[in-house]
JmjC domain-containing protein
Amino acid sequence: MNTAEPRQRVPRVAWNDASVTGHLARGEPIVLVGGCPLIAAVVGRWSFDSLSAAFGERDCSVHVSRTENFARLYGHGLGLGGVRQMPFRSFVEAASQRGTGSHETDLNYYLQVPLVSPGAAQSTPVALEAELRDLGWAWLHSACEAAASQPLQALQLWAGHGVGMTPCHFDAMDNFLAQLEGRKSVLVYPPHCSFDLYPYPTGHPADNFAMADPERPDLGRWPGLARATALEAELAPGDVLWLPRYHWHLVRQVPDACGGEHPPPFSPNLSLSAWVGGKGTEAFRAEADAAYAAAKLAEAAEAVVEAEDIEFAAECASHRAAALRAFHAARLVETIAAKLLRSQVEGGAFLTALAAGADASWPAGSSARRAARRIRLQLAHLLGSEANAAALLRATTQHGRLAGAAPPCE
């Protein structure tokens, strides 16, 4: 992981240590070590050879890129690359031929395929059904109860060749990321760092990804990134990272020692993600609906006081629930503004103007003034005060985040 300075580590704790339950309940990332039952039965059994045989000719989704960046979304203004369908053995063959000189061998590959997806047509290869039964389902159920995160949403397999990274993003479900073969390095940012990572505007195809790159920080463009504090997790075979929802993370495969070779040698990398729980927005949405109904048209302008921003940021940093509430509120208000202005860009400009207090000088009774007041009151209901509402507007629009900073995409 390319970092400017040493980072604190995600705690590594024996899977059966008494403290694990507390970490799960508090929504704190943790690396479970010492033979976690979730994958203990298949570590060392699953390999590229065994999975090639198990999947046979069944097609899998494989991300293909000429860079090390697997953005998951490809096209103009998004990532460079695409997704191909190919059997597992074809993925292995293509990945193992990298660097041999042909046009196709300049590519990097990253396979992802669901193994279990409750409620959908079962996708498990017949040859893997017995081995999947050997996973630690009882342990997973107990861990999910401790984390108040039910039910299982999907079990997904990741396969790479030791090169590649998924850019910094968040997921709306909890994840037990289990390493089967090879190594991964993961940067983890708590939810209160969301605004300092500069998420793509809500409604953008990549709106769960950060525009700022923690590995190559451009503090001239994204100065808030200097405030974002990451933890780092190193995953070896048998390790399981508990990654609570809405924690930002950047995942990089770590190749075997290659002595400076370029490209690095073929280095099989296998992981499983057990996605559990829901988005956790049900209670928030109910409150948001109530706040919207309660918001009344009025005139006022909040004072722009930096001390309020510091107090608001401190509250979010010390309370995970407050950070999640602020993040959901920001996404909600971005959606509302885009609908009001019938444009994501115009909605962003509108919120940027509100953050600067420009609405105080807009004509009384104008539709823009009324819309501004409604948004401020709705945020105040959700966040507890008009000062917090003003602080959130400044945080979510800081440094031109919504004013055309995101590239157009197709």
The chain has two domains: 8-190+229-276, 282-400. The longest strand covers residues 108-116. Residues 291-305 have pLDDT under 50 and may be disordered.
